[in-house]
Design brief:
Length: 397
C-alpha cells in the first residue's frame, strides 16, 4: 500500500478543518469528503474547497468504505463522541487539541485507541516546525547540557475586546480552561517534546479580565473581526490569561504566560531553554530561525536548512534553506509522519508523532493548572495508575 491508496475525510469545515484538507492533499492523500455542522454548511464548504462530497452525518461518512482515516476538527465538546465513533468503526483518527473536554474523556480515548491498535494522533502541529524538531534533537544529544530553565509565552489578541466572541468562550463547548486549553496546551506539549521532560508540578494563576462579553446572535468564524449588530450579554467564567510556574520531571524550573488579550500579538509563541552548557530560543513569528546562546563564544542564529539540521529537522522540511516554511507546512510534516503508520496499517509501538496519549497528558497538566489556581498552591500532575492507562493492542485493522 502507498499513500496514494489512502482515503481520508475531515469533520469540521472551519478555520482549521480547511488547513487539514489542504495539507492532506499536499501529502498525496485523497480527501473524499467533509462533514459540517449541517448538511447545507458542509455542502457549501465542500464546494468552496473542491472536495467531492459533503456527508449528511457521521454515520454516512463511516459508511464510505474508501475512508481509512478521519480528522476531527470540530469544536472541543464534540471530540470525544466523534473520535470514539471513528475508532469504533475501525478507522484511524487524527484529532485536534485539546483532545477532549476532561482528562477522564481523553483517558477513554487513549484506552480505546490502544485496544483497537489503530493509528491515533493529537494535532500538536507546532512540534513540526523544522527547527522545533531540530531543537528536540539538539537537547536529546546533550548539546545544551542539563536542561535547567524553560520559559516563554503564548500570546494572541483576538479576544481582547468585550465584543469579541467565539464558541471557545462557552465552557460547555470549549472546556473549563480556555486560554490554557486552547493555546497553552500547544506550548506545554512543545516544551515536553523539545526537552523530553514531562511537566511534574505547577503553580498557576488564572485571570478573567473581561467578565461580561457580548455574544452575537448569529454565528461567528474563528479569528473573524466582523461584528454583529445584534448581541446578548454573557457572563464569562474562563481565563483570558494565565501565569504558570512549572517544575519538570528532571527538576528543571519554568514559567509561562498565556494570553488571548495581548494587543498586537496575533499568534506569538516563544520559548527559551537554558541548559548547563548552552541555551536555545525560538519565536513562532520568526519560525525559520533559532537562537543558540553561548557563554564563552559568540551566539549563533541557525536558519532552517536541511543541510545543517539533524534527521528530525530534515524529515520535517520540504524546502531548501532560505525558503521560509510556516504554519501550513507544519500540518503536512505532521501528517506525513502519521500517515507512514497509516500506510503500515497500525500504530507503531513508539510513534514519533503526538498521539492520544500526548493529548491526554496535556489534559492531566490542565487539571493540575486548574486545581492550583483554585487552591492557590503548587499541585503535582496526577499520572497515578488509578487513572485509566493505555493497554496493549488486541486487534489490528
Ligand atoms: N492545531 C492548531 O493549530 C489549531 C488551530 C485552531 C483550532 N484548533 C482546534 O480545532 C478545533 C476547531 O477549531 P476552529 O478554530 O477550526 O473552529 P471553527 O469554529 O473555525 O470551526 C469549527 C467547525 O466545526 C463545525 N462543526 C460544528 N459542529 C459540528 C458537528 N456536529 N459536526 C461537524 N462539524 C461541526 C463548524 O461548523 C465549524 O466549521 C478546535 O478543537 C480547536 O482547538 C487547532
Amino acid at each position: 500500500m502507498s499513500i496514494a491508496d489512502i482515503g481520508a475525510a475531515v469533520i469540521g469545515t472551519g478555520f482549521i478543518g480547511t488547513v487539514h484538507v489542504e495539507a492532506l492533499r499536499r501529502i498525496g492523500v485523497a480527501v473524499h469528503g467533509v462533514l459540517g455542522s449541517t448538511p447545507e454548511r458542509g455542502a457549501a464548504r465542500a464546494s468552496a474547497l473542491g472536495v467531492p462530497r459533503a456527508y449528511a452525518s457521521l454515520e454516512a461518512l463511516l459508511d464510505d468504505e474508501r475512508i481509512q482515516v478521519v480528522h476531527v476538527t470540530s469544536p472541543n465538546d464534540l471530540h470525544l463522541s466523534q473520535a470514539r465513533q471513528v475508532l469504533e468503526a475501525g478507522r484511524h483518527a487524527v484529532c485536534e487539541k485539546p483532545l477532549a473536554m476532561t482528562a477522564d474523556e481523553s483517558a477513554e480515548l487513549v484506552a480505546l485507541a490502544a485496544r483497537t491498535g489503530l493509528v491515533n494522533a493529537t494535532n500538536f502541529n507546532i512540534r513540526y516546525y523544522p527547527l522545533n524538531q531540530h531543537a528536540h534533537d539538539v537537547v536529546a544529544a546533550g548539546d545544551l547540557g542539563d536542561v535547567r530553565l524553560v520559559t516563554g509565552r503564548y500570546f494572541q489578541d483576538w479576544l481582547l475586546l468585550e465584543s469579541d466572541w467565539n464558541w471557545r468562550l462557552q465552557p460547555e463547548r470549549g472546556g473549563a480552561l480556555r486560554a490554557v486549553g486552547d493555546i497553552g496546551s500547544h506550548w506545554l506539549d512543545l516544551m515536553t517534546f523539545v526537552t523530553g521532560q514531562p511537566v511534574a508540578a505547577v503553580m498557576a494563576e488564572l485571570a478573567t479580565f473581561i467578565e461580561t462579553r457580548r455574544e452575537p446572535t448569529g454565528p461567528v468564524e474563528t479569528f473573524s473581526t466582523d461584528r454583529s449588530a445584534e448581541t446578548v450579554e454573557r457572563a464569562i467564567a474562563t481565563e483570558d490569561a494565565a501565569t504558570i510556574l512549572l517544575r519538570f520531571g528532571n527538576g528543571a524550573r519554568g514559567a509561562v504566560s498565556i494570553s488571548q488579550i495581548s494587543a498586537g500579538r496575533k499568534n506569538s509563541l516563544q520559548y527559551e531553554i537554558d541548559g548547563s552548557q548552552a541555551s536555545l530560543a525560538w519565536d513562532s513569528e520568526q519560525p525559520d530561525q533559532i537562537w543558540i546562546g553561548h557563554r564563552d563564544r559568540a551566539n549563533e542564529i541557525l536558519l532552517k536548512n536541511p543541510a545543517l539540521m539533524g534527521p528530525s529537522g530534515r524529515a520535517a522540511t520540504a524546502l531548501p534553506g532560505g525558503h521560509v516554511e510556516g504554519f501550513f507546512d507544519t500540518f503536512a510534516a505532521h501528517f506525513r509522519a502519521v500517515y507512514a503508520d497509516v500506510v503500515a496499517g497500525a500504530a507503531s509501538s513508539r510513534p514519533g508523532y503526538p498521539t492520544f496519549a500526548d493529548g491526554h497528558d496535556e489534559m492531566l497538566v490542565g487539571d493540575a493548572i486548574a486545581r492550583s489556581a483554585r487552591e492557590g498552591r503548587w499541585v503535582d500532575v496526577d499520572r497515578s495508575p488509578a487513572r485509566p492507562q493505555p493497554v496493549i493492542a488486541e486487534t489490528h485493522r
